[in-house]
Design goal:
The chain is an alpha/beta fold and about 250 residues long. It is built from 7 helices and 11 strands. α3 runs parallel beside α4 and α5 runs parallel beside α6.
Length: about 250
């Protein structure tokens, strides 16, 4: 049976911003750390209509932000990074390696998907060979979502067990089962049956203070984003009372 469920919080970084934007991110970071999260998943928003035309500008702001916030992050936290769109493999591995993070968080490693969060349709065709090359060069671990149906359209349907097995075979050090509309709560158990006990499995998508306790003993960690933000809106600041409610639901003090 997995140990106590870890709370992993997403720290979002807009594709383009200002010093004011970075200052708000720093405030969010303070609230998350003071509130007792176990880890951070840092990602850019990746939702700009012309994101492909200005990747250099996106990366410039990401680096500028990371230079400000990285010294403030406790070394006791697990730290990962996700670059959107999720097929920007060079950036996905370069950023966490340069800033001493623990892992790369990938929205997909084995499932073909189309992004719903972009202004333009973006189809992602995983290139496992390229991912493994960057993984080998960087020494970083990979946390991969499987069948991410929340912000993506799945372009091929298959049993969740197949996606779990494929992700492990492709080199994922942990898989994240994604909850979304029509989600089968049995998917977590199905994935666990494939990877076995001892292999870290996470859950994300609509996790909040009302339901997080149901995943204790089933997953090693839960990833939360909008449920920790004011009024449940991802673009809003982190709400300390929401994080406190999550910790309370797990029987923990902040």
């Amino acid at each position: 049976m997995p140990a106590d469920l870890k709370v992993m919080a997403v720290l979002g970084i807009p594709d383009i911003g200002s010093d004011r934007t970075i200052n708000q991110i720093m405030k969010d970071l303070d609230v998350l750390q003071e509130g007792g999260v176990d880890g951070l998943l840092i990602e850019n928003h990746g939702d700009s209509a012309d994101v492909f035309l200005r990747d250099q500008d996106v990366n410039r702001f990401l680096y500028r932000t990371m230079e400000r916030i990285r010294p403030l992050i406790s070394e006791e936290l697990l730290m990962g990074f996700c670059k959107l769109p999720p097929d920007r493999y060079a950036d996905s591995f370069r950023m966490p390696r340069n800033f001493g993070l623990d892992f790369v968080w990938m929205d997909t490693l084995v499932d073909r998907i189309r992004a719903r969060y972009t202004h333009q349709p973006v189809e992602v065709k995983p290139d496992i060979g390229e991912v493994l090359r960057y993984k080998s060069e960087s020494g970083l671990k990979i946390l991969s979502e499987i069948q991410p149906g929340n912000f993506y359209e799945l372009l091929e349907r298959r049993p969740v067990e197949e996606s779990a097995a494929a992700a492990v075979q492709a080199g994922a050090d942990s898989i994240i089962v994604v909850r979304y509309k029509g989600f089968d709560e049995g998917s977590l158990e199905m994935a666990r049956a494939v990877v076995g006990q001892g292999y870290p499995v996470g859950v994300t998508g609509g996790i909040n203070a009302r339901n997080i306790a149901t995943y204790e003993g089933k997953a090693e960690y839960a990833v939360l984003y909008s449920s920790l933000r004011k009024d449940g809106i991802p673009e809003n600041p982190v709400d300390a009372s929401r994080l406190k409610a999550v910790r309370s639901a797990l029987g923990r003090q902040a």
